[in-house]
Amino acid sequence: MVISQSTHTLTIIDDELPPVPSAGFIFITEVLDSNNGASNDYLELFNNSNEDVSLYNSKLIRFTSAGSYEYTYDFGEDESNASTDIVIPAHGFLIIARGNTREAFNTAYGITLDASVYFNGGNSNLFFGTGRRWKLKTGGSANTDDGTLIDDTSVGVGSSKSYRDIFTNTFTTGNPDDGTPGELEYIVYSGGSWVNSVAMDATTASENVYFYDNYTITTDDFAGDLGVASGNTLTIDESSSLTVSGDFTNDGTVTLNSTADDFSSLIVIGTASGDITYNRFVNSYNDGFGGGWDLVGSPTVMTITDFTTANGANIEVLGDDYAFSQYDNAAGDWIRYATGSQVGSFTTGQGYSMATVEVSPPPPGAAGATVAFTGAMQTTSQSINVINNNGLNGVGRRWNLVSNPFPSYINGNTAAEAVNNFMDVNSGVIDGSFLGVYGWNGSSYTTYNNTSDAFSIAPGQGFWVAAANTVDTPLDFTTAMRTTTGSGDFVAGPQPLVYKLELKLFNGETQKAATKFYFRDGLSLDLDPGYDAGAYNQSTKLSTRLPQGSQEFAFEINAMGIDALQNTRVPLEIRQNAGQAFSVSIADMELPQDIYVYLEDTLNGTLTSLKDQDFELVAQSNLSGVDRFFIVFKSNSVLSNGDAFGIEALNVYKANSDSFVTITGISPELGQLNVSLYNILGQTVREKALNPTTATQSISTQGLASGLYIIQLKSGNQVFTKKIVVH
C-alpha cells in the first residue's frame, strides 16, 4: 500500500447498531396513567442484560384487556417529536411517553431523569392509561402485530399505576402520584452492580431483593422477599447473615459458609423454595491437641446416602465405618454408619457424632474441614422426641443428643433472649437438675446454662440434654429462638452482676476434674433449674451437692444467692483411689475481696483457706460420698474449725422414694442437736437426738400417713424448721 505525502483526513463511522432485544432480558416494568396530563402518561422498559439493546425494527403493540389487537407503535417511525431514543442501556431504562419531550416530562413530574435513563417521546395514540394489554415484539412488518415476542404484560395494565416484579412476573397497582420513571420498585443486583445504585443492607428489611448475578454477602443484610435467578449464586460468608422477612425463592445456588470460629446465618420468616448448601465446619478426628470429633446435626433436609456421597472423602474412615454415628440412649451405644451403604435421612433436630479426616501434622489453627449439607431449609418450628431411658429401664441413659435444625443461630439462655430461648422453652422437658446445654469442646464437655454469659447455639450444632420424662416428650426448636447473633459453636455475651468460683482437682500436674460455684441475687440453696447443673459424668472426680434439698445428683455448677457468700457449707465430693495424692485449688475466682473460701476436711479436722494455699492430701482409703469434705464461704479471714457455722448451714431433705428425712452438714461445733417431726395438727410424731460427730444422719418416716409435716432441729438457742412431704 502506497500513501502519498499529501495530507488526508480519514473518518471512521461506527454504524453498527446494538443488538436487538431478547426475551427474558427486556421487560415492561411500569405503566402509568398520569395525573399531570395525558401527554405525561408513560411506559417503562428495563434492560436486564449486560449490553445496550436497540429497538430498531421493534414495536409496542396495544391490545384490549381481552386480547384483541388495536394499535402498533413502531420505534423510530411513529414518534411525534424529536425525543426519539430507541436504545435501552445495559441494566438501564427507556421511558416512552405519550407525545411529550424529555424536558416537558421532567417539568411535569418535578424531576430530572438521570442521564442514564433514555427517553422516547412516543405519540398520542399510545393510550397508556386505559387498562390495555401491551406486547413488545421485534421484526415483522410495520403497523402489524407480527414479529418475535419479547415481552407481554399478559393482563390489562395502566388504569392508574401498574409496576412489575420481574422475578415473580406479577403486576401491582399503585397510586399514579407515586410514579418512579427510571427506577425499579425493588432492589436488583445484575451485571456486577446494583441497579439504580440501591444496595441490600441493614436498612432494606421491607424491600424485595433479586439476584441476576453472583454475589457474596459480607455483612448482616435484610430483605423482604428475596430471589436468586437460575444460573446465579448467592453466598453468605462465615461472618455474615441474611434475614428475609418475606418469602425466599432460590432458582440458582445459595451457599452458607463457616469456619471453626464463625458460622453464617440465614433466617426466612415466610416460605422457602429451592435447596441451600451449608458448608459446616467439623472438627478433625485428631486435632493435634489431644482431642477430636464433633457433635453436629443437619441444618437442611438430606438423606444419609446423599451426604456420604458428597462428603465421604472428607470424613475419617474407621475400619468399615465412617467416623459418623448416631446415639441410642436406650442401650447407651453409638451406632456408626458403614462406608458400604447407608439408609435413611438425617432426623431434624437430632445430633450426630462426626470427625473429618485427620491431617498429619495438624494444620495451624483449628484442625478440621467443612462438610456440605444440601437440601431444603426449615422455616417453621421443629421438635424431636427425647426420653429418660435411665429412669425407664436403668440400662439406657437420660442423655439425648440433639441439634439446632436451623441454618441460623438460636438463643441459648435468658441472657441471650428473655423469653424465646432454648432453655426456657424446654424447661419442662429437660430434667431440672440438668437444665442446660452440654456441649463438646473437642476434648471434654462444657456446661452452658443461666450461670453462663449470653450464649447462642450455632447452625447444625449438636449437644446433649437430659430428658426429664420416661416417655417420649417433644423438645422444641421454635422459629422465635432464631437469631443471627453468635460466633463459633457457643458464644459469650454480657450478663448481670454475678460472682463466680471454679475449683480444679489435680493428680500431680494433670487436671482431672473441675467444679463451679455461681452467686446471683434471687437464687436459693436448693435446686434452681437452669442455674444449677448436674455433672454430665456423675462419677466425676470432683463435684458438689446442693447445700439444701436432694443429694441425689453430683453437680458441676452449684448456683446460690449472693447472701450465701456469708455463711454457707457446700458438700464437696472427691473421688480418689487409696494411695492417690491429689490437690484442690482455685482455678478462677471472681469474689468480693472480703469473702474467703475454705475446704473443710471433717475427718482430719482441718480448714484450708484456698485463697492462701492449695488443699493437698494422700487418700488413705478410697474416697467418695459427701460426708467428709465441704466448701465453706465466710467473710472471716481467720477461721478455725472451732468457729460455728450455724444451724442454718444444715441441709435437710427427703427424696420421694426414701422412707426417711436426711440431715447433712452436722458438725461437733453445733453441740447437742435434737430433731422433731410434727404433723399439721402440731402433734409430735417422731423425735431423735443426733450424734454431733456424724456428718449425715436421718430420721425415719416409715409408717407415717401421706401428707405435709414440719421438721424442727434445735441446737442450744438455735432453731431450724422446714416443711416436708411424705408420700
Q: What is the count of β-strands?
A: 58
Please summarize the sheet with the most strands. Answer: 6 strands, mixed
Q: Architecture of the domain at 26-185, CATH level 2?
A: Sandwich
What's the number of helices? Answer: 4
Relevant CATH superfamily of the domain at 26-185? Lamin Tail domain
Give unreliable regions as ranges: 490-495
Give average pLDDT, whole number.
Answer: 90
Summing up helix and strand content along with how strands pair, one would put the structural category as: mainly beta
**Percent helix range:** under 10%
Rg = 37 Å
CATH class of the domain at 26-185: Mainly Beta
Distance between the termini: 117 Å
Oligomeric grouping of the chains: single chain
CATH topology of the domain at 26-185: Immunoglobulin-like
The coarse silhouette is elongated
The portion of residues forming beta strands comes to: 35-45%
- Walk across the major sheet and give the strand order: 8-7-2-1-11-12
